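Budget justification note: compute hours in this period were largely spent on complex prediction jobs such as the one shown. Inputs:
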Amino acid sequence: MKIHEFQAKEILRGHGLPLPAGQVAESVDQAVAAAEALGVWPVVVKAQVHVGGRGKAGGVKLARNLEELRRHAGSILGMNIKGITVKRVLVEQGIDIAGEIYVSIVVDRGCKCPMLMVSASGGVDIEEIAATAPERILKIQLRPELGLRDFQVRQAVYFLGLPREAQPQMTRVLRALERVILDHDAAMVEINPLVLTSRNEIICADAKITFDDNALVLHPEIAALRDENEEEPLEGEARRHNISYVKLDGRIGCLVNGAGLAMGTMDMVKHFGGEPANFLDVGGGANPDRIAEALRIVTADPSVNTILFNIFGGIVRCDRVAEGVLQARERAAVTQPIVMRLVGTNEERARELLAGTDLIMLPTMAEAAQRAVELSRRAD
Amino acid sequence: MSILLDANTRILVQGMTGNEGRFHAAQMIDYGTQVVGGVTPGRGGQTALDRPIFNTVREAVAETGAEASIIFVPATHAADAALESIEAGLRLVIIITEGIPTLQMMDVYWEARRRGTRLIGPNCPGIITPGEAKAGIMPAHIHKPGKVGLISRSGTLTYEFVNELTRGNYGQSTCIGIGGDPIIGTGFIEAFELFNADEKTEAVVMIGEIGGTDEEAAAAWVKAHMDKPVVGFIAGRTAPPGKRMGHAGAIISGGQGTAAEKIVALETAGIPVCERPDQVCELLRVAGLKPLGEGGVQPRVAK
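Corresponding output:
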């Protein structure tokens, strides 16, 4: 789960990390009040959205006086950045920048432990540095039974070539970031840039934290930070019903049991020249209600013109899927044609339930996908 | 021979008194698996499915001589259950549970390594050695004893391939679901090592998906060390970047982990990649593998 910069900074502040003073504002008047409370110029106005590249999109502006602040806050609030409307800005004191450092800790699947990454080339996209000049990034593995050790902190500090005065503070920063990962089950914490001022102070100018979705149940205070404005509405709805759904741009609505098979089904649709409208995994213990809900979510996407079920019943019983489809059609008319591939546990019972309906039943994944693509084309 | 699991493997079910645990333990017993007992704290002394239930794994091991465990414990307690089995000295621990917090799983991973425990999963369908034993949630009836080893990050997608291998009369030696989480106990490479050494396995099918770079590393390993033909499949060609596709580990992040990259890595290593599951038998045939005996066997999809 992603959170906003201002929320991430609240968490960092709780760990004693050095941050610029700032306040969140939801209107121009609030932004003015925030700047007046800061009492310093210039200030930075930063759009609070989860998507990357907000700076390039014009979502971060420097204001040297009240008039500029009004203008920038007015233009950024309500701005659309990659499909997300900006509802909040963070108004922060400007910082005097002598150097920009990159620091992050990621729970890394490759080394199976948290990995600390530092680079003296902060302020730019780390993936760009990784691609063009990987030698400018130092990676340090933090083995869970050892944690961050002093020698590793020294490695990082010397690699960055920091002045002696900044070293104790840098040590505290790295230790605090390790706590952020461990205390909140974060998947990633990234400070880019970590600014070195001309007085050799260190300040976290930006902050990004993402959390392990599996651990949110252990941290209700973190789960409460979710911003549903940032979510695709149907994805949020699916999540509340424990259905795994990702909206895509195509026309064929897919309902599948199992994540791997769901991806495989999307790929099969594409293989026959169609475009999947979504990824959807109904989950292992799917009952008729869940199936009906899933069908409702898929058909709520106006671009869906054909529906494709692919169920390989192991734990999921085919008769329950059939009942779910019938239930959904009783509650609301489903106008799109439905192609079903339904094999496995209780397959015959499912076929009996669906006998006499206009559902198109096909025995294999390939045949079902191919038919769905044909029907989708015909509907266009 | 087979890998990890056979008809003699004595196995415990952690969480056998819960809904999922009881249901699948019953099916495992039905298949002939040596389920020797269950572990549910607070239920010690009771029985379930005519097997004794114990409060602790240590106690269960002392009484039953179990060497393996399969875990159906809910996500917030599953890591602890795994650590308990590792501590009790079990050789093999299989975690079916989905949704275990990553940092907890990280601790389990390293502890299993320190103690030499073979850890499978989490978030996986388990292991089946057709005709001998199953420790998992896969529908047994689609399997057939045979010569192809299967390694997969997915559940139901694996069944699709198993079904094809059964229809094509290749059968399976052992199928391992390695799991869909970012941190898993046994990866592709360790599973390949086991199959490479197994005389019953004549070829291996690897089923990967988007996210991480394990398939790339495995492809390089196969090229350098594998003596048997390997056929691959990668799910998620149409998956968008930055979105978790169901499995916690199935996400393209930082431009890494795309299906296209993995397919190139496999093909570069000489591993033919199926575009569709129903091509797997054809690719195995091209790789020189002959089906079992003469004539086809009818598919056994429906029960």
